[in-house]
Amino acid sequence: MPRWYVSGWRLGWPGGGHETAGWGSILKDGLYLLLKKILIVGGRGFIGSHLCAELSAKGYHIHTLSPGNPEKGIPGSLSHHCGDAANAAPLLQSIHPLFSIVYLAHEGWPGSPGRDQETMDHCLRPFHRFLQAACLKQPKKFVYVSSGGAVYGNHPEPTLDEGVPLEPVSLYGKIKKQAEAMGQEARQNHGLPFLVARPGNAYGPGQVPGRGAGFIAAAIAGIRTRIEVPVFGFPGTVRDYLHVRDLVRVIRLLIESGEVGEAYNLGTGRGSDNRDRKS
Q1: Burial class, 238, CB count within 10 angstroms (exposed 0-12 / middle 13-18 / buried 19+)
Q2: DSSP secondary structure, 35-100, as one string
Q3: Residue 66: which region, alpha, beta or left (left: phi > 0; alpha: psi -120 to 50)?
Q4: How far is it, in rounded angstroms, from Cα 169 to Cα 156?
Q5: What confidence tens digit (pLDDT) does each residue in 48-82 have?
Q6: Strand partners, 160
Q7: What is the strand order of the sheet 194-199 is part of?
Q8: Which of 3, 122, 142, 145 is the right S-S partner for 159, CB 3.0 to 4.6 Å?
Q9: Would you tell me the crossing angle of helices 244-257 and 46-57 to the nearest 10 degrees?
């Protein structure tokens, strides 16, 4: 279970406390912060819409990229672009200067038994092409939103830090692990300012039940409709739940001052069994 890890000097402003910065770097950072243009890939989703609202309130100019047009609009969005990550190169080049990219999309589709590698290749291909385009653009920061549970797999420890080996069990976790590795490779070989957020299970307003995720939303809907909600996982399976508004605030902090190359677990540090949540 991830612990809350976004606090203290590691998220201090560049040039403050433990770091020093030249005037050229400070002026460049100031230009990016003044214009504050951010691209959110997957901005139509549950977390993405809340992130748009959070960043808009802080004066950021937001661009979102998602398939299809928004049904009810995106709070605080400056511009929505209909498309997919695999063909985003022209969009990336048109946003200038681009302060940051937040990648929330998950290119998933149901796989067939025994064909995990084929499924992974299909899901990761759009992300790979997007990384190539981002390397050419070179934003100030690239925040990849991974998973705080699925990438770690089954561990007996009640809390996990970022140094724990990634041993995912589910295909979803394996895809997230591979995407993290691809981003870190782009950082090492092409200078992409890549870092990873590994959130726990987000919940809050706007989460739609019945889409295979969001246990709390499903449980509340079950109570209202008096329909039994199935609980998946073995007894003793512990998950860390955090409110989506807390999550997007921390993602904003990572955009502003997270360290390139790092991975951050985002959670409350307090786990609970779904059976307890249900009761």
Answers
A1: middle
A2: H-EEEEETTTSHHHHHHHHHHHHTT-EEEEEESS--SS--TT-SEEEES-GGG-HHHHHHSSS--E
A3: beta
A4: 14
A5: 989 999 999 998 999 999 987 665 555 544 688 99
A6: 2
A7: 79-82, 61-66, 37-41, 100-103, 141-145, 194-199, 263-266
A8: 3
A9: 60
Kindly tell me if the per-residue pLDDT of 232 is higher than 50.
yes
Percent pLDDT > 90 in the chain is 45
Residue 2's beta-bridge partner residues?
160
**140-156: per-residue pLDDT in tens?**
999 999 998 889 988 77
62 sits in the region (left: phi over 0; alpha: psi -120 to 50; else beta) called beta
For tokens 């677990």, what's the residue?
265
Predicted TM-score (pTM) of this structure: 0.78
The span from the CA of 228 to the CA of 270, in Å, is 26
At 88-128, the pLDDT tens digits run 999 999 998 899 999 999 755 544 456 778 878 888 999 99
Cα–Cα distances in Å, from 165 out to 160, 162, 177? Answer: 10, 8, 11
Separation of alpha carbons 97 and 34, rounded Å: 10
Q: What percent of the chain has pLDDT over 70?
A: 65
